[in-house]
Amino acid sequence: MTKSGMLSLFIMGAGQLRNKQKGKALFFFSIQLVYVLIEILTSSIVSGGLPNQPKAWGYGFFRKGLWGFFTLGETTGGRFRDNSPVLMIEGLIVILLLGILIFFWIMNIRDANQTAIEYEKSGQIKSSKEYFKHVFETSFAYVVSGPSLVLLLLISIMPILFAFFTAFTNYDAYHNPPADLIDWVGLGNFVKVVQLPGWRTTFVGVAIWTLVWAIIATFTTFFGGLFLALVVNNHRVRFKKIWRTILILPWAIPGMVSLLVFKNFFNQTYGPLNRMLGMNIPWLNDPTLAKVTLIAVNFWLGVPYFMMLMTGILTSFDKTIYEAARVDGANKKQIFWRVTFPILLSQVMPLLIMSFAGNFNNFGAVFFLTNGSPRNIAYEYAGHTDILITWIYKMTKDFKMYNMASIMSILIFLLIGGISTWNFMRTDAFKED
């Protein structure tokens, strides 16, 4: 490392100043100065001699944030008691801001070092004005999107990190801040999922049903929509616009409204369907029948989307392909399965994968129709029709098991992300890109 790089290692911009690039030196030094001033000013503000104040109040913004993140608080009573989740959030904000500082610190060292090496080789150094002009021209998109990226880190990434780190704490109904402090437990919660029979049985059972539900819900709506699109677009069918309008109505009605209507429609005691049949069928109270009913209602809601999608794709097909197939002696069945369907599948496969991911986390269909019922006494906080996302919702809202819910969120991300990525990379659309 050159002398300029060594100087920038301790004081940002010092190496640039040695390289006679005052503009760059001022830019990098001002970034470090902002962080130092924030730490100094917040330290002086909070250490103003308040009675009975905990020692952490003497810390500045960054030191207090790191202290809060690693300790999650020390004081439980009194006016200045610690709130563990708030301390974790503040700590995450500090870590993200320090990450930005580290990025500019590394950038500052590399720039000072490379400039010094170039000067030794060529005997010339670009001015700060030329440097900033070059950066603006070559990295315009990054410069403009920089502020948005910072907001993205604080608004979108930070809550995800909070949920992730909650999985490594004992944040549950028995440790409820601010009355109680929460502590780091490491991989203890993950061990519970593997070792404790109740949690293991629940996770395996709910995960299997979630996977089965996502596969069936996706392929039934896909092939149902394809079938209706072929029927409606058949040359023998008259009044095509009227039929399309009727078939698209389930998609036009808000899904939540439809699900609540179906919930009353399939009610075992006073539901219209059982009254018309004169029977007492437990549509939503029998474990197997409730799952079948859920799939049937989802089919009714999801088919119009795929029908309109398939209709648009089918009408855009090159007709000469069919003429060539007929000349080669192919019949209608062979034309569909060997010409139409492969082309259609290659075009909709990315959307099919997205639909699978959507059904995997289809909270509304399960929650508004069955709410996870009927109850399963072998499960922890879950019913027979609960999928992973509704199980997580129950654990957070109804039972305050935030740590276990965070674990399930991580596992969902790994599962659905892995499956979707693997399938998407195998599609023709990805290979073409």
TrEMBL record:
InterPro entries: MetI-like, MetI-like_sf. It is found in: Cell membrane. Pfam families: BPD_transp_1 (PF00528). The chain crosses the membrane at residues 25-46, 86-106, 140-168, 206-230, 242-262, 292-314, 335-357, 405-425. GO terms for biological process: maltodextrin transmembrane transport. Its main location: membrane. Keywords: Cell membrane, Membrane, Sugar transport, Transmembrane, Transmembrane helix, Transport. PROSITE patterns: ABC_TM1. GO terms for cellular component: maltose transport complex. It is a multi-pass membrane protein. Belongs to the binding-protein-dependent transport system permease family. MalFG subfamily. This is Maltose/maltodextrin transport system permease protein.
